Structures are given as C-alpha cells and as structure tokens.
Amino acid sequence: MSTEWNVIVYDKPGADRSKHRPSHLAAIPETVTSGIVKSVGAIYHDVEKTKFAGSAYHLMADSREDIIEFLKKDIFAKEGIWDLDTVLAYPIGIACRVAKPMPGVNL
C-alpha cells in the first residue's frame, strides 16, 4: 500500500519555467486521475505570486526513490528547471481535504 507524501521541489536559481509550463500543466490531469497525485500547485517567493519558487505535491508513492522517479518524468525536471537534489519529501497524514476542481479532471 502506498503512502501519501508532502513533496516540495524547488526551481533552480534563475530558472525560467514559463516556456515549459503549458506542457507541465497538460500532464497533471493524467497523474491526478491515476491516483498518484492528490494535490499539486506552484509555490512562490512572494504573496503576490509573481515569482515562482518551485512546486508542491501531495502524492502517493512507496518510497522517496519512487518520488524522485516520478518527478524526473516531468518536463520541469527534463529541462533543468527543478533542483532534484533539494527535494523535500515527508509522509503525511491528511486530517481534512477540501476539493478544488481542475479543468480536465473528473473525479
């Protein structure tokens, strides 16, 4: 049985994700409907959300190694946007979850 993990993956300093963001976003619905990703979104350096810091996930995996392999498949990893050497991953117990619909995902 997989464990749910809270995962933070930072962008490399100076990385510009804008060119690859449409491909990154297009891949999300499949990972959600497959049950791997429970929640996902960008993290920012500022409350105005003008400067990306990286990405946050709640995802299902058996190990930290599985998490890294999952992240490596993303366009942000393949294009050198994410710093996979600094991934934070902790098992998490969710006490409450409030849904926010994503276009293209029917759960």
Automatic annotation (TrEMBL):
Name the record gives this protein:
YCII-related domain-containing protein
Origin organism of this chain?
[Candida] railenensis
